[in-house]
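Re: weekly structure request thread

Next one in the queue (115 aa):
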Amino acid sequence: MQTLPKERRYETLSYLPPLSDAQITKQIQYILNQGYIPAVEFNESSEPEQHYWTLWKLPLFGARSTQEVLSEVQACRSEYGNCYIRVVGFDNVKQCQILSFIVHKPNQNSYGGRY
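Done, posted below.
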């Protein structure tokens, strides 16, 4: 078994090969199934000391489908294609971010495919 080439790792799932569109959709569906609140964030840098990302819009409190979240990812990507973009899941009971993963890196079409 071969390891991935040495490169900077960004978020949850970053040690895996890039996610496909179907895998991104499944991760977003997991967020929704768990009752977490999805949000889209962006930042020019993904340096570890950069803890604060800019929220694209308010968290998607009423999101019921993956397509709603993916539409916001696409809109953010259209506006800030030169930034890292990630999807996060917030737990409103624990009042904290539970997970996050990169869906777009600058200088690439996206992390997976079109999203």
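The beta strands are 37-43, 54-55, 84-91, 96-104. The two ends are 29 Å apart (CA to CA).
Next request, please.
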